[in-house]
Amino acid sequence: MATAPFTVAIDGPAAAGKGTIGRAVAAHFGFAHLDTGLLYRAVGAQVLTGRDPIEAAQALEPSALENPALRTADVAQAASKVAVIPEVRAALLDFQRAFARRAGGAVLDGRDICTVICPQAEAKLFVTASAEVRAQRRWKELQERGQNVDYEQVLEDVRVRDARDSERATAPLRPADTAFVLDTSELAIDAAIARAIAVVEAKRGLSV
Ligand code: DC
User: Fold this and answer.
1) How far is the CA of 20 from the centre of ligand 1 (A)?
2) Distance separating the N- and C-terminal Cα atoms of the chain
3) Best residue among 111, 128, 157, 160 to mutate for probing ligand 1, ranked by most atoms within 8 Å of CB
4) What percentage of the chain's residues is helix, strand, coil (to nearest 5)?
5) What is the pTM of this model?
6) Would you say 126 and 11 are in contact if contact means Cβ atoms under 8 Å apart?
7) Phi and psi (nearest 5°) for 107?
8) What is the full per-residue pLDDT of the chain (208 aa) written as tens digits?
């Protein structure tokens, strides 16, 4: 029997751990998970091949999210650039809202999930960490994937993306007033996941 919708909305800057936390929370509760950054990355990747961003967003198919090539630094910057365009954001809205309200529960992570996509979400978290800690984690991840990049360059990329994501006019990155702020700068990932699960658990208790 399908259970009622229950939305966990997670926002935060690049490389704060929200994807890992989102996936773990979804697995714990048996919810579906959507990394909404992949939507913008899929559009950004198409723009890098010369396509118009609005057209690419309007024609986006969920199967485009499966592409492992979406995880590169170039695609991340392209995603951050297309994410500034209001028509791109509008084209991706319905898919995200429908995903959030699917039967059986859903976790969405991104930049504007608590503030714009799902302000009524039952549980809201803002996952953050210092720029240096986030750059260090991203650098390690890229090394492990065989992408040999300079730490200073990764830190610069994180800062540029933070500025663009936070300063844009449409749906800028900011913590929702009602979001639980989880700073992972000094938390191991297991502790951060446990904290997030406890927050959702408390809200689950209230909603049943
Ligand atoms: O989470 P990520 O690094 O995969 O996101 C890539 C870019 O997409 C990010 O720099 C800004 C944009 N984005 C957004 O504007 N809104 C979201 N909900 C998710 C991502």
Assistant:
1) 15
2) 16
3) 111
4) 55, 10, 30
5) 0.94
6) yes
7) -115, 130
8) 568 899 999 999 988 999 999 999 999 999 999 999 999 999 999 999 999 999 999 999 999 999 999 988 899 999 999 999 999 999 999 999 999 999 999 999 999 999 999 999 999 999 999 999 999 999 998 899 888 889 999 999 999 999 999 999 999 999 999 999 999 999 999 999 999 999 999 999 876 5
